[in-house]
Specification:
Number of domains: 1
Distance between the termini: 20 Å
Largest sheet: 8 strands, mixed
CATH superfamily: Aldolase class I
Helix content: 40-55%
Number of strands: 11
Shape: globular
CATH class: Alpha Beta
Radius of gyration: 19 Å
Order of helices and strands: EEEEEHEHHEHEHHEHHEHHHE
CATH topology: TIM Barrel
Strand content: 5-15%
């Protein structure tokens, strides 16, 4: 893992995501190195000899830059609310390096000191988010954790260096106990959840048990670059899964996924955010 400290020119950037006006990415790259990650294209021009998960740029001045940007935007909008802010669109803001650098914490503190009145949402795979509970409560931030399996071995296979899913579930319970609004991001839906639909039932029921009420469900993004990287990994580790993933791009698979998800949601009593599964028909702009 190559880690570099860099100076960011900006930190609060316009988002192309449908649920966010702005995004904050405290890092470039991600130590978790998930095999299905859509953001793996980031840094390929700067680190052509390294794969996703082998490099990380730390925006060491991000909190200071964010404070300056907030002041400028307040003058522009004449308000302390200029839209929904999302941490983070192309990295995990609570990856391992955050324990040392505390860039995400610094950005949250900048927002709290400013008295930001807009929505703030965080998506992570890390229980490290619990460290900042008091700031999250002050900002009335919403926190989501990605849950793609109940079996730590399954999640570890695809999410190579990410924290265990069992730890994430405990984090969701703690956040809810502390009064922080939460959601779960079940995405991408991995093959074991479709090959054995009862496992999706179990996952949704477990989310309900840790007090989650709302979830996103995302079908896997198999665009050319993501597919190339994922299949290279599967050829080395479990070639039989390639055929399963190939089927995930068919209309028949979408129909089956829709049906399985609807049934599991009904049984668990969970709400699907946005009312539909996220499919990757549209191109969104992800800004680092």
């Amino acid at each position: 893992m190559e880690i570099k400290e860099i100076q960011a020119k900006s930190i609060l950037t316009k988002s192309g995501l449908p649920d966010a006006d702005w995004s904050v990415n405290p890092y470039v790259g991600c130590q978790f190195g998930c095999q299905y990650c859509y953001a793996a294209f980031i840094g390929r021009w700067k680190y052509p000899d390294k794969t996703w998960g082998q490099f990380l740029d730390v925006k060491i001045n991000a909190p200071e830059v964010l404070r300056q940007e907030l002041a400028k935007l307040e003058k522009k909008y004449k308000s302390k609310n200029f839209g929904a802010i999302f941490f983070s669109s192309v990295t995990d803001c609570y990856q391992a390096a955050e324990a040392k650098y505390q860039i995400t914490r610094g950005c949250l503190q900048a927002l709290a000191d400013f008295g930001y009145q807009g929505e703030i949402s965080i998506l992570t795979k890390s229980p490290l988010v619990l460290r900042d509970i008091e700031l999250l409560k002050k900002l009335k931030a919403e926190v989501g954790l990605t849950i793609t399996a109940l079996d730590d071995e399954v999640s570890r296979f695809f999410e190579v260096a990410a924290p265990t899913v069992s730890g994430r579930l405990r984090a969701l319970k703690k956040l809810n106990d502390e009064g922080v609004k939460t959601y779960a991001f079940v995405g991408p839906v991995l093959p074991h959840l479709i090959l054995s639909p009862e496992k999706l039932d179990e996952l949704f029921i477990k989310l309900k048990e840790v007090a989650v009420r709302e979830i996103y469900v995302e079908s896997i993004n198999l665009s050319a670059k993501i597919k190339e990287r994922l299949y290279q990994y599967l050829r080395r580790t479990n070639p039989a899964l390639i055929n399963v993933f190939d089927q995930m791009k068919t209309p028949e698979y979408r129909q089956r996924l829709n049906k399985i998800v609807r049934v599991a949601l009904s049984r668990a009593g969970l709400k699907l955010i946005g009312g539909e599964i996220i499919y990757h028909n549209k191109k969104f702009n992800f800004i680092i």
